[in-house]
Each structure stands twice: as C-alpha cells, then as structure tokens.
Amino acid sequence: MGTLLRDNQRAAVYRWERGLPDGRAFPTIPECQTFIDEVWEEWGTGSPPTARTIGGYRAWASRWEIDLPEPTRFERYLLHEITHSLQHCDLDITCHGPTFASMYVFLLEEYGVITSAQHEKERGYLQRPRKVRFL
C-alpha cells in the first residue's frame, strides 16, 4: 500500500486553470460521456469512467466515475477530471502534482484547448516557487 502524499500544488493548479479557455461546451451528460469515451479510447485502458451528475458546483473524479455538475461541462473541466481518472489518483502520487500537471497540459494541447506556444509561455512562468510544477 502506498503512502498518502500531501497535495501541495492543488491550489496553484486551480489558480492556473482560471486563466485557461473553457474549450467546447458539453451541455448534457450523454455529450460529456461521448467526449470521455473519445479521450479514453485514445489514452486509457479498460472501460472508461462513467459521467454523472449528483449536484453541486465542483467536478470530481475517480477511476470509474466523473461527476460533472452543469457549470463544469466544458472541455477543460472534463480533461482535468479525465486526467485524474487516467492516473487512478491513488496513494502513490499527489493528485495535482507534477505528473498530473504534465498529463493535463498534454491533453489540453492534444484537444486544442491551448496551443503549445501558450503552454511554453505559461510553463516558464509557472516553474517559479509556489506555482504549478511540471515533470
């Protein structure tokens, strides 16, 4: 069994995300599921997580489920949660650590939410202490 690690850069990741474009909207849970399936087919293994909504305003993910309240049904939110599902966010990694941040940015670029040039500019800025760290 792994050791629970402190998620030191969670707040920094959330602050950084506020400056990102939302990307495409997915108004319904079936549309969210279609996008999850598309990403999972390319990058995941096994069955994709199931999109659902149980209310509230914050998205949440496990390996098997992604909860997507209505305000979070945009590409960047889905990619954030899909990244958690892809990593299985278990006890051996920090859920918003450098591995997460690198994979998340890769997916944001792959699906056109941000460009490589935007990422390089942001990455240089975000490498400073108390900012998001990447691999």
Q: Could you please say which CATH topology applies here? A: Zincin-like
Helical fraction: 40-55%
The count of β-strands is 3
The helix-and-strand class reads: mainly alpha
User: Biggest sheet: strands, sense, closure?
Assistant: 3 strands, mixed
The separation of the N and C termini measures 24 Å
Indicate the radius of gyration in whole angstroms: 14 Å
Helix and strand sequence: HHEEEHHH
Number of domains: 1
* CATH top level label: Alpha Beta
In what order do the strands lie side by side in the largest sheet? Answer: 1-3-2
Tally of DSSP helical segments: 5
Q: What would you call the shape? A: globular
* Average pLDDT taken over every residue: 83
How much of the sequence is in beta strands? 5-15%
What does this structure look like?
The structure is a single chain. The protein has a three-stranded mixed β-sheet. It contains five helices and three strands, in the order ααβββααα. The protein is globular. The longest helix is centred in the N-terminal third of the chain and has 15 residues. The model has no long low-confidence stretch (mean pLDDT 83). The protein has one domain: Zincin-like. By secondary structure, it is mainly alpha-helical. Helix 3 packs across helix 4.
